Amino acid sequence: MVSGVTTSFSPSQMMKRSGLDRSAFLRLLVTELTYQDPMNPMDNKDFIAQLAQFSTLESVEGMSSGFEKMSQSSQWSYAVSLIGKNVLGVGQDGEDVSGLVTSAKIDDGDIVLSLDNGATIGVNTIKEVQ
To answer: Which of 13, 23, 29, 56 is deepest in the core (most CB within 10 A)?
Structure first.
């Protein structure tokens, strides 16, 4: 039996474990500041460390958003480059479909290719380009 052991996590570790977002982080920080003991306030170093972690979190979220946009842009460029080419992919019914790509569109955030035979396939389901 182990006694007297405590585990503490930094706010960023807590956010990773619990899935908290930045607004929840700010609410926790404000709550912590609101209810701190005035006779024993938070150490300035701890406060600055938490603010630095929040700044890092915002930077990571910004990078993540940028990578997501870059990925979607790359997929869109790929889809447009397939116009006029024969492809084999998975159709909406789950069966393999092949045909000549006639157009590309974004439907609910997914990039979809229209084929000359009337079928549509998601760009991420392409198995072969001929």
So the answer is: 29
